[in-house]
Design the sequence.
């Protein structure tokens, strides 16, 4: 929607800067690392889709870039300049878990945290195969994705408390139900006019073709991505998921379907609550705090970070 407003650079990709390039190439204060980054990046679809030529960014990156934030800023500024606009956006779910670091690298960044009902989010992530299936819980993938949603949302909201007025939460359901009003709120936050009719008419990228893992539903007369969970879960699945993430759903004012007396408080639920957030945090630590990530340069984003 922001890209369709006419005020922002159009780049139809997640840049991969923070969750792929930064862990892979390490300290960008080192000229050798900057050269290695550019050498690979110029061969990928991520670069091809910028619409830039190597010469438009190479010297700036080699001379000015010291952090992943610098790299993103340089690239997006050149895209914006080429397209005759002044502002740009970056999006990735995984940015939520490193917001303080991103803010330190790009001090004037404004953060919009889009929050969606975790029961719908878990369905979409599971259908996309967002997380690898853990062998000890092969039939619990939906529940694991629900816990991942909760872990991500809690990281984002905790960081938001530190960011203060530079952070805003937007509900996905409100954007679908009340797009004009919701966009007006976002527009005030970012000091930008966001005209809903103009955005619909421009139809850049996913405004024209909705981004959904349930593509068959696009052929239905009344496509609606909100509340899919009400029909998609079995009674047992929904009760267990709400037992796992119900506290966070409640904090966000999402009403629970399962009566309190039926919420599962079994040993399995207790173990999942204890285990998976620690697994997610360990993976985050390995990826962003250790050099081990560089030993597996194509995992786990090998499908996105592909060669052109």
Sequence:
């Amino acid at each position: 929607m922001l890209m369709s407003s006419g005020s922002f650079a159009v780049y139809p990709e997640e840049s991969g800067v923070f969750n792929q390039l930064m862990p892979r190439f390490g300290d960008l204060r080192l000229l050798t690392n900057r050269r290695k980054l550019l050498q690979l990046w110029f061969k990928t679809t991520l670069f091809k889709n910028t619409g830039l030529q190597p010469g438009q960014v190479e010297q700036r990156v080699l001379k000015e870039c010291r952090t992943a934030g610098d790299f993103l800023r340089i690239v997006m500024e050149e895209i914006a300049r080429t397209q005759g606009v002044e502002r740009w956006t970056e999006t990735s779910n995984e940015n939520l878990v490193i917001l303080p670091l991103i803010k330190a690298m790009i001090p004037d960044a404004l953060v919009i945290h889009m929050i969606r009902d975790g029961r719908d989010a878990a369905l979409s992530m599971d259908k996309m195969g967002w997380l690898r299936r853990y062998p000890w819980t092969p039939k619990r993938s939906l529940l694991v994705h629900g816990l991942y949603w909760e872990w991500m949302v809690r990281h984002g909201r905790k960081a938001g408390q530190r960011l203060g007025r530079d952070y805003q939460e937007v509900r996905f359901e409100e954007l679908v139900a009340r797009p004009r009003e919701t966009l007006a709120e976002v527009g005030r936050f970012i000091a930008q006019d966001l005209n809903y009719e103009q955005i619909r008419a421009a139809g850049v990228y996913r405004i024209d073709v909705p981004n959904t893992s349930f593509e068959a539903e696009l052929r239905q007369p009344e496509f609606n991505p909100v509340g899919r969970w009400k029909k998609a879960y079995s009674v047992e699945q929904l009760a267990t998921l709400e037992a796992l993430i119900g506290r966070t759903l409640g904090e966000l004012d999402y009403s629970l379907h399962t009566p309190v007396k039926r919420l599962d408080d079994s040993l399995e639920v207790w173990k999942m609550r204890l285990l998976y957030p620690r697994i997610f945090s360990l993976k985050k630590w390995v990826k962003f705090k250790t050099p081990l990530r560089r030993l597996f340069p194509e995992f786990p984003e090998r499908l996105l970070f592909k060669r052109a």
Residues 92-212+276-290 form one domain. The radius of gyration is 20 Å. Confidence is low (pLDDT under 50) at residues 296-308.
